[in-house]
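Q: What does the predicted 3D structure of 6-carboxy-5,6,7,8-tetrahydropterin synthase look like?
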Amino acid sequence: MIIQKQYKFYAAHRNEELEDKCRNLHGHRYGITCFFEVERTGSLSTLFGDFDRKIEPFLKSEYDHGMMVNINDTLYETLMNHVLRTGEKLKLKRFSQPTTVENLAHQLFTEITDMGFRLSCLEVRETDTSVVSYTREDWVTDSRYFANSKTADTESLSK
């Protein structure tokens, strides 16, 4: 059985790999739709509040009104120098890859799965007209890709 839940948060990011408007720091009202696989245990499977109690506070503390930033982006070093120089606290959600909606989908799928939920799909809405539908198969494939990338990076650094 599938239970569908929707959440939202506001966050800034940029895609430093592009040479268009998205290279600039900007923000979105992200919407995510989780498709949870659940098993019936009697008259119900899972209370909707069981999802909300874990996911809503997590999104609020980690993402909402913060900035997603790739730690390999030159902007990250600038932000960290600003924090050290001024003592100002910035809400930064660190990524080891560019903060594309595809990479955000992978990150969220991983974090929600780590909470103990089983997702079949996660939709991430970046704008009113742009949605990524990210499946468990996508997540498995990307997890292997990112693991292999880290291994290759580590091997090249040790040479």
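A (community wiki): The structure tokens above were generated from the sequence. The radius of gyration is 17 Å. Strands lie at 2-13, 26-37, 66-70, 92-95, 119-127, 130-135.
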